[in-house]
Amino acid sequence: MATRGIAVYAGSFDPPTIGHTDLIERASNLFSHVIVALGVHPTREPLFTVEERLELLRRVTRGWPNVEIGSFGGLLIDFCHEAGARVIVRGLRAATDFEYELQIAHANADLCPDIDTIFLPTRTNYGFVSASLVREIASHGGDVARYAPGPVCEALEAKFGPHRPR
Prior knowledge:
Blueprint: E1 3-11, H1 18-30, E2 31-39, H2 50-60, E3 67-72, H3 76-83, E4 87-92, H4 95-111, E5 116-121, H5 131-139, H6 150-160
Parallel strand pairs: 1-2, 1-4, 2-3, 4-5
């Protein structure tokens, strides 16, 4: 049963992966409302545009009625305040993720003590899946169907061409 309140799960989602959708689903079971927030970083050069990533996120989250898609520039805690969220959800794949994520959580707590961060470990079978891995495999014609949702696979095929059978 979901707890009351709004949670934000933020990332660049370039592209969304099965690991991302697993965390979104799990967060949607924990909170009454989850905002998947696409962070816009003007200095980065993503594979997919902001609009493309927002549309991919909308498509892969259609099955969860309590999930909303949004985007933000600037500080995540400012976005959380504007959205009325008290919780930031972060995924952890490995111990190395924890050190980085804990540093960010501490900074967020220092800047805004009324917003908490919770960490959800990825499922064991998704621990190695990352957006950069998916991009790399797809760019070389590899099949990423076990790492990315169907709409993302279609978008990657449109960017790079169909995968080549091995």
